[in-house]
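Weekly puzzle thread! Below is a chain. First person to post its structure in token form gets bragging rights.
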Amino acid sequence: MTRKTALSLVSVLMAALLGLGAPLLACEKREKSRAEKVEDKAKDAVDMREHEKLKDAGENAKDALEDARDAAKDE
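Winning reply:
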């Protein structure tokens, strides 16, 4: 691949990534209300949340990262 072709390919890929990523930058993250948090905790207790397995996996990963951070601090 020539240098000119490689540079144009990089330019096209960057433009595509920016074009596809722009809508994500505009998304607004909304905090849950107190009632929504209580409802989520109640549904979590009885395993009735939407996408329960996925949310549990995320929580487990978060806990594992916190444990690794604490172990690194101890070392």
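Puzzle host: Confirmed. Bonus trivia for everyone else. The chain is about 75% helix and 0% strand.
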